[in-house]
């Protein structure tokens, strides 16, 4: 899940740079990846518990 989110947002950033001449900071991209992982993991009880134990939200 983490790898898929990272690849997706990196690819999305590439497309923004090429087609829309937009650029985000590394911090913004990292926060998006972390947020995506937390949102998706909250749908599965086992993963939700693991994420709560990490106690890290952007």
> Strand pairing plus helix content: what structural class?
mainly alpha
Which residues form runs of ≥5 with pLDDT under 50? none
Counted by DSSP, the helix tally is 3
Number of strands: 0
Global mean pLDDT: 83
Domain count: the total is: 1
Tell me, briefly, the overall form. Answer: elongated
Order of helices and strands: HHH
Q: Termini separation (Å)?
A: 17 Å
From the structure provided, what is the oligomeric state, counting identical versus distinct chains?
Answer: single chain
Radius of gyration over all CA atoms, rounded: 13 Å
Can you give a write-up of this model?
The protein has one domain. The protein has helices at 2-20, 26-41, 45-54. It contains three helices and no strands. The longest helix is centred in the N-terminal third of the chain and has 19 residues, at 2-20. With 58 residues, the chain is mainly α. Helix 1 packs across helix 2. The mean pLDDT is 83. The protein is elongated.
Spell out the key features of this protein.
mainly alpha, single chain, 58 residues, elongated
Summarize the structure.
This protein has 58 residues and is mainly alpha-helical.
What order do the helices and strands come in, and which of them pair?
Layout: H1 2-20, H2 26-41, H3 45-54
């Amino acid at each position: 899940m983490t790898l898929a989110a990272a690849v997706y947002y990196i690819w999305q950033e590439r497309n923004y740079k090429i087609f829309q001449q937009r650029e985000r900071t590394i911090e913004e991209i990292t926060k998006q990846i972390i947020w995506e992982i937390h949102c998706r993991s909250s749908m599965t009880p086992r993963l939700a518990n693991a994420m709560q134990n990490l106690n890290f939200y952007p």
